[in-house]
């Protein structure tokens, strides 16, 4: 069945270093979404990518959607302690459902 | 946060007891979702609703039932709670552009 895999599961970085998480789908996605969940909090929507090869930026965050629309990445430049949390990708499934990746937990060491 | 509340926020119960979690939204969204979140599994869909009295199963629906008698309320029931249902439960609504807005979550412990 359709799956959305996310790597790495955990990432520890020194403050100021860059961070990237990758999301891969076994099938072509019509769109992909990214969410951030702070420790003890709930997932918060960050962005949605729709077009093949699309790149969107939000300040230090860069989101990419692959040409084949089967993979995506989130890159954070010069991490800060406020970036701590778990980042999830999510892809649509038939029947108005969504598959969430298992998430990448980011720890930023001051 | 799209006016979504969940109750209770924390609950401890015993195996075999029924439990009902409530999700309430104030913005008249059609689609509502119940997820559970467990370490190593991310968010997994339990059930969802696409309108009043219209619901469907997600990938981990066994042991759970739902009801939606009003647009604003979506209830998740564990008929007979088991320890494997210890989890954090999130309700979500779907926005205009398919993005999801999540409630604050309910932490359920089944002893």
Folded structure, characterized:
The complex is a heterodimer of chains A (110) and B (111). Chain A is mainly β and 110 residues long. Chain A has one domain (4-109): Immunoglobulins (Immunoglobulin-like), CATH 2.60.40. Chain A contains no helices and eleven strands. Chain A has strands at residues 4-7, 10-14, 19-25, 32-37, 43-49, 55-58, 61-65, 71-76, 85-93, 97-100, 104-109. In chain A, strands 2, 4, 5, 9, 10 and 11 form a six-stranded mixed beta sheet that branches. In chain A, strands 1-3-8-7-6 form a five-stranded antiparallel beta sheet, with no helix packed on it. With 111 residues, chain B is mainly beta. In chain B, strands 2, 4, 5, 6, 9, 10 and 11 form a seven-stranded mixed beta sheet that branches. Chain B is globular and about 40 Å long. In chain B, 37% of the residues are buried. The model of chain B has no long low-confidence stretch (mean pLDDT 95). The chains are: A mainly beta (110), B mainly beta (111). Chain A binds chain B through residues 6, 9, 31, 33, 35, 41-45, 48, 88, 90, 92, 95-98, 100-103, and chain B through 1, 31, 33, 35, 40-45, 48, 50, 56, 58, 90, 94-95, 97-105.
How would you concisely characterize the structure shown here?
The complex is a heterodimer of chains A (110) and B (111). Chain A has 110 residues and is mostly beta strands.
> What's the CATH H-level homologous superfamily of chain B?
Immunoglobulins
* Individual helix count of chain A: 0
* Mean pLDDT rating of chain A: 94
Largest interface (C-beta under 8 Å): A-B, 22 and 26 residues
The count of strands of chain A amounts to: 11
Strand percentage of chain A = over 45%
Rg of chain B is 13 Å
Estimated structural class of chain A: mainly beta
Order of helices and strands of chain A: EEEEEEEEEEE
Helix proportion range of chain A: under 10%
Kindly report the average pLDDT value of chain B: 95
Looking at the overall shape, the CATH architecture of chain A is Sandwich
Low-confidence stretches of chain B: none
Stretches with pLDDT under 50, minimum 5 residues of chain A:
none
Bulk shape of chain A: globular
Give the CATH class of chain B: Mainly Beta
* Helical residue percent band of chain B: under 10%
């Amino acid at each position: 069945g359709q799956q959305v895999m996310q790597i790495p599961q955990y990432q520890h970085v020194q403050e100021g270093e860059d961070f990237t998480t990758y999301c891969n789908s076994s099938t072509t996605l019509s769109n992909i979404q990214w969410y951030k969940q702070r420790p003890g909090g709930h997932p918060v929507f960050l962005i949605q990518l729709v077009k093949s090869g699309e790149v969107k930026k939000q300040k230090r965050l860069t989101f990419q959607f692959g040409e084949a629309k089967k993979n995506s990445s989130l890159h954070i430049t010069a991490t800060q302690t406020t970036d701590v949390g778990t980042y999830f990708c999510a892809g649509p499934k038939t029947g108005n459902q969504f598959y969430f990746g298992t998430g990448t937990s980011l720890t930023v060491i001051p | 946060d799209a006016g979504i509340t969940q109750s209770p926020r924390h609950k401890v119960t015993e195996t075999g007891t029924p439990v009902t979690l409530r999700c309430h939204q104030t913005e008249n969204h059609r689609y509502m979702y119940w997820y559970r979140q467990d370490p190593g599994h991310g968010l997994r869909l339990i059930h969802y609703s696409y309108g009043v009295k219209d619901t469907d199963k997600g990938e981990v629906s066994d042991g759970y039932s739902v009801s939606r008698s009003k647009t604003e309320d979506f209830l998740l029931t564990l008929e007979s709670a088991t320890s494997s249902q210890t989890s954090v439960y999130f309700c979500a609504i779907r926005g205009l552009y398919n993005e999801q807005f999540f409630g604050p979550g309910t932490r359920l412990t089944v002893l």
